[in-house]
């Protein structure tokens, strides 16, 4: 038996070596399909894997596994029931289940533990790394590379170590269309051909979709959720397509099926941000006729470009819980005040804050990741102020801002006259300045590689050697690093030292982008209050009292509809501008920057066209600014009583009429030739 396996492995290696020599495997070789052939080629040419080197599976140690699990903690909780249900259907058939993160690391596992030793040796176990870059062609890694469900059966695998295995996988996508996880059904062996895994492929695709949909419904329970399908009888119980809309009627989330169907309707534009009216022949403000209590066969609508008929159930946003229970629950948690002050109740950020609180007084290095402007330096300062080092220095270093020629002397300091142009008095470096406190290394991914080895010595030895010195100086500091870049990708590309990455990545905390935060209203209120407080010093000298301005409903809707690519930094700039130009203590829609409003709306008809056909913009079903949609909703709710709406919004009737004219909103009474 062992000799037969060795023979199979030798034959397999010869096949793969042919890929290395010729750059591709002939289609006739082994009857392998194109996906497998392309993966083998990718393994040789792109990943630089050696087909003659048989690698044992890599099982990550416990602390690294926990880091991967913490990054997908919410999805893990949601997916667990799906894994257990699926395993009940395949138990006794020799299969085990793996759920990996988007990097290919197994973060959950269900299998027959009586066979634990064999499963672990094969890598079918918790903590196994099944990325294609490391393991070669395999179910998980190749599903990540292609975004497709597939079976990698026996000698489809690249590495000869894995040719006894059969692995069937399907990707799990998040509501933004990104790959979030991979669901895998694997067995240690199979006496049958690849077609025998067809049922496994159907099951894994179905449960991957169920997990993705459950994740979607949990995330968008506070928004409009649209359930769509081709069957009136099944749309309420098993919808095929899912969409989430914000208050302005724009898509903020979708499942994979909806993405594949509707991105073609959006003329190849990303589905996120598309208005409801562009995708369907219906109006956002008429979603009330699609609510569940109406018979499903009366809830039909047409896809805009294709004319395809679908049935829909529209569920309005669940009401927000009152602030008092949220604040009481937060008060019960033993969170340090500086960290607790960073969130207004966003679940993703709260989890990261709770983790940071547990790490506050440890010596573990922390790596903060997140988009530019998402508040990494604020988080680092709060972590410092929540620790026992709060009375010692917090020194921030922007590794991307210091000229490369000066970064060595700025970080490590220098002795008098140690290099041309050096100060005659010498200089303490920023690392020494942070002695006893926290050193915050922002944009660490932009640090020159030659400086990385010197920084590694500081972290490993806790000592610094100034330029020109021969004796190192001890330092006692906590290191917090931050980046918006993909450091693992930089490591693979040779732009960042792997040993420094692992030293910095004692614990990784990922900050959510502003567009995904559920506490946006709270963030806006905090920034407005902080701006008013900053203005207070100058105004109090003149005998005035500064107060935070209020947001009009239209202005608030515009802020909520914006995608915030610049995150907190962009929001602060927008609010500072609006506070400066608003009058009467209320920020109106026209007080917001023009570029923000331009990004939120499509080009409007020109003035002559609006004057001649004031209702045409709405009649044509075009794209409308969120503030216009909101105003129309107010008018319809008040049965077109303009005076009542003006009182509600705190506007004069003339101002309200001007806005109606600007957006082409005409009362039905006027359109019918009557008067209001």
Write the layout of secondary structure elements.
Layout: H1 2-22, H2 34-45, H3 62-71, H4 73-90, E1 95-101, E2 106-110, H5 116-122, H6 132-135, H7 139-146, E3 150-153, E4 166-173, E5 179-187, H8 198-219, E6 224-229, E7 241-245, E8 251-254, H9 256-262, H10 276-279, E9 300-302, E10 309-315, H11 323-332, H12 337-340, H13 347-359, E11 366-369, H14 376-385, E12 394-398, H15 407-412, H16 430-433, E13 438-442, H17 449-461, E14 463-464, E15 473-474, E16 478-483, H18 487-493, H19 498-504, E17 507-510, H20 520-541, E18 550-551, H21 553-561, H22 567-581, E19 586-587, H23 594-600, H24 607-612, H25 616-619, H26 626-637, H27 642-649, H28 653-662, H29 668-671
Parallel strand pairs: 11-16, 11-17, 12-13, 13-16, 18-19
Antiparallel strand pairs: 1-2, 1-5, 3-4, 4-5, 6-7, 6-10, 7-8, 9-10, 14-15
Question: Can you walk through the features of this model?
Answer:
There is one protein chain. Helices cover 42% and strands 13% of the residues. By secondary structure, it is α/β, with parallel strands linked by helices. The C terminus is likely disordered. A hairpin with a 6-residue loop joins β9 and β10. The longest helix is centred in the N-terminal third of the chain and has 22 residues. It has a 5-stranded antiparallel β-sheet, sandwiched between helices. It has a 5-stranded antiparallel β-sheet with strand order 8-7-6-10-9, sandwiched between helices. The protein has a 5-stranded parallel β-sheet with strand order 12-13-16-11-17. The chain is built from 29 helices and 19 strands. α17 packs across α19.
């Amino acid at each position: 038996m062992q000799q037969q396996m060795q023979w199979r492995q030798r034959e397999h290696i010869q096949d793969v070596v042919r890929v290395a020599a010729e750059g591709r495997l002939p289609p006739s070789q082994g009857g392998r399909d194109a996906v497998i052939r392309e993966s083998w080629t990718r393994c040789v040419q792109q990943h630089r894997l050696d087909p003659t080197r048989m690698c044992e599976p890599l099982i990550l140690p416990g602390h690294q596994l926990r880091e991967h699990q913490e990054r997908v903690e919410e999805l893990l909780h949601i997916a667990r029931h799906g894994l257990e249900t699926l395993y009940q259907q395949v138990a006794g058939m020799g299969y085990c289940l793996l759920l990996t993160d988007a990097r290919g690391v197994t973060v959950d596992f269900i299998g027959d533990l009586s066979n634990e030793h064999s499963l672990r040796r094969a890598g079918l176990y918790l903590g196994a790394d099944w990325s294609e870059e490391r393991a070669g062609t395999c179910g998980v890694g190749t599903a990540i590379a292609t975004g497709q469900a597939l079976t990698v059966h026996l000698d489809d695998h690249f590495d000869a170590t894995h040719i006894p295995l059969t692995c069937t996988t399907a990707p799990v996508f998040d509501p933004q269309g990104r790959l979030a996880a991979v669901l895998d059904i694997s067995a240690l062996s199979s006496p049958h051909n690849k077609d025998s895994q067809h049922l496994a492929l159907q099951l894994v695709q179905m449960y991957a979709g169920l997990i993705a949909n459950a994740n979607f419904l949990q995330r968008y329970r506070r928004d409009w959720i649209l359930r769509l399908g081709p069957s009136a009888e099944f749309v309420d119980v098993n919808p095929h397509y899912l969409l989430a809309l914000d208050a302005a009627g724009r898509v903020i989330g979708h499942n994979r099926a909806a993405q594949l169907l509707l991105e073609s309707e959006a003329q190849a534009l990303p589905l996120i941000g598309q208005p409801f009216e562009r995708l369907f022949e219906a109006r956002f403000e008429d979603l009330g006729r699609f609510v569940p209590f109406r018979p499903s066969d009366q809830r039909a609508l047409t896809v805009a470009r294709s004319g395809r008929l679908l049935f829909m159930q529209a569920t309005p946003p669940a009401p927000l819980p009152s602030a008092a229970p949220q604040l009481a629950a937060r008060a019960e948690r033993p969170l340090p005040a500086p960290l607790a002050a960073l969130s207004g109740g966003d679940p993703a950020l709260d989890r990261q804050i709770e983790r940071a609180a547990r790490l506050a007084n440890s010596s573990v290095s922390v790596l903060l990741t997140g988009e530019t402007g998402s508040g990494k330096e604020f988080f680092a300062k709060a972590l410092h102020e929540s620790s026992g080092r709060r009375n010692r220095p917090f020194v921030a270093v922007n590794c991307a801002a210091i000229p490369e020629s000066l970064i060595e002397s700025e970080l490590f300091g220098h002795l008098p006259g140690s290099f041309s142009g050096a100060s005659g008095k010498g200089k303490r470096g920023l690392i020494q300045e942070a002695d006893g406190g926290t050193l915050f290394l922002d944009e660490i991914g932009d640090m020159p590689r030659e400086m990385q080895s010197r920084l590694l010595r500081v972290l490993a030895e806790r000592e610094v050697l100034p330029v020109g010195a021969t004796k190192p100086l001890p330092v006692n500091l906590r290191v917090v690093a931050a980046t918006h870049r993909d450091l693992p990708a930089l490591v693979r590309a040779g732009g960042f030292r792997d040993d420094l990455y692992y030293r910095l990545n004692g614990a990784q905390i990922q900050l959510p982008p502003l567009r995904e935060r559920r506490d946006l209203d709270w963030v806006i209120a905090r920034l407005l209050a902080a701006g008013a407080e900053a203005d207070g010093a100058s105004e109090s000298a003149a005998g005035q009292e500064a107060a935070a301005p209020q947001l009009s409903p239209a202005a608030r809707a515009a802020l909520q509809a914006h995608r915030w690519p610049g995150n907190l930094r962009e929001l602060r700039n927008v609010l500072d501008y609006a506070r400066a130009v608003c009058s009467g203590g209320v920020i109106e829609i026209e007080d917001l920057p023009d570029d923000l409003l331009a990004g939120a709306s499509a080009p409007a008809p020109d003035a002559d066209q609006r004057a001649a056909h004031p209702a045409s913009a709405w009649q044509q079903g075009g794209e409308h600014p969120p503030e216009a949609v909101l105003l129309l909703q107010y008018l319809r709710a008040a049965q077109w009583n303009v005076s009542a709406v003006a009182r509600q919004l705190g506007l004069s009737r003339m101002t309200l009429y001007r806005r109606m004219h600007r957006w082409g909103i005409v009362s039905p009474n006027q359109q019918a030739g009557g008067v209001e």
